[in-house]
Amino acid sequence: GDIIVLASSSVIRQLLEADAVDRLSIMLCPETSGGGERLFDDSVFPRGEWILAEHKVTETGAMVLNYDRKR
After folding, report:
1. Sign of CA dihedral 3, 45, 37, 35
2. pLDDT tens figures, 21-38
3. Phi, psi values for residue 18, rounded to 5°
């Protein structure tokens, strides 16, 4: 079945390492900047080819990017 993970970079990293992710949905909020933990670093980067399947900008200016894994 589907697994949806919200705001848990450690779980997302584990799923990426296990090659168990078919879709990434990333929300970029322009209001926040500065520090914080990176979702993707050199050791855990989504392997394979990803295709931008959908994108939209919300009323607040946040961007929602949906990437599908090309298998």
Report:
1. negative
2. 888 888 887 765 666 666
3. -85, 5
